[in-house]
Structure to design on (244 residues):
């Protein structure tokens, strides 16, 4: 990370949004937003947090984003907010990290061994990933994927604990899979503070070199796109490729 030390972290992949200020050396402050309030409350929460920590946007070296997978609206709001700050302060560095990794990082304090993070993707599905953390790095045992809790239970990958609202929503499958109850939000949910911790973990975060072209990892197509494709029987054209 070089001399970069003070970051704003934004996590908006699920109903429990959060913002934090700090860096690899420690957390200065965090605000958690419940009830899917990111749209109205995210920017005010950032400004309140900066004020309470005695910081300004000008003091930051960068922004680190939880980039999904997760809810379409929350992720769009998070990225739009980060891009707005970057337009005002173009010298800031932008970094991204899978939101599921952030949740798994928090889960690693509850058990030794691989940690599963599950977000409720609705339609009976979950966004899931499994990570093993070591003192110097991590292994993505199962990279972020769209699946079901039942499929995880019946598969070959094992986890010592599962966290997240998806783990809580399918608790019976999770208990059969891991041998212990899930840890749901807020303790077992994504937190912006975890993204700050991951800045110190080699290769956990990725620098975004073209921040105004970046998109979150939604995990699947938005519902409106799915409905269009089902109605028309073909993929939605990509306007960037001149489709019609």
């Amino acid at each position: 990370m070089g001399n970069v030390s003070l970051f704003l972290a934004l996590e908006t992949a699920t109903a429990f949004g959060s913002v934090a200020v700090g860096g690899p050396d420690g957390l200065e402050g965090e605000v958690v937003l419940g009830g899917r309030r990111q749209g109205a409350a995210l920017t005010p929460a950032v400004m309140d947090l900066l004020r309470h920590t005695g910081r300004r946007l000008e003091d930051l070296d960068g922004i680190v984003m939880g980039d999904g997978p997760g809810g379409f609206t929350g992720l769009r709001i998070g990225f739009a907010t980060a891009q707005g700050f970057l337009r005002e302060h173009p010298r800031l560095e932008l970094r991204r990290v899978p939101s599921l990794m952030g949740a798994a990082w928090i889960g690693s304090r509850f058990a030794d061994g691989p940690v599963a993070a599950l977000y409720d993707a609705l339609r009976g599905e979950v966004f899931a990933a499994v990570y093993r953390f070591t003192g110097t790095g991590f292994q993505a045992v199962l990279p972020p994927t769209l699946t079901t809790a039942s499929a995880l239970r019946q598969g070959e990958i094992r986890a010592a604990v599962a966290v997240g609202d998806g783990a809580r929503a399918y608790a019976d499958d999770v208990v059969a899979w891991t041998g212990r109850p899930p840890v749901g939000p807020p303790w077992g949910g994504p937190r912006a503070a975890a993204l700050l911790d991951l800045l110190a973990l080699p290769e956990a975060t990725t620098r975004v070199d073209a921040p105004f072209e970046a998109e979150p990892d939604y995990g699947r197509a938005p519902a409106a796109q799915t409905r269009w494709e089902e109605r028309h029987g073909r993929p939605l054209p990509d306007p960037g490729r001149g489709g019609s």
In short: The chain has eight helices and ten strands. The longest strand covers residues 138-147. The CA atoms of residues 47 and 144 lie 31 Å apart. Strands lie at 7-11, 17-23, 26-33, 62-66, 93-97, 115-122, 125-133, 138-147, 161-163, 206-207.
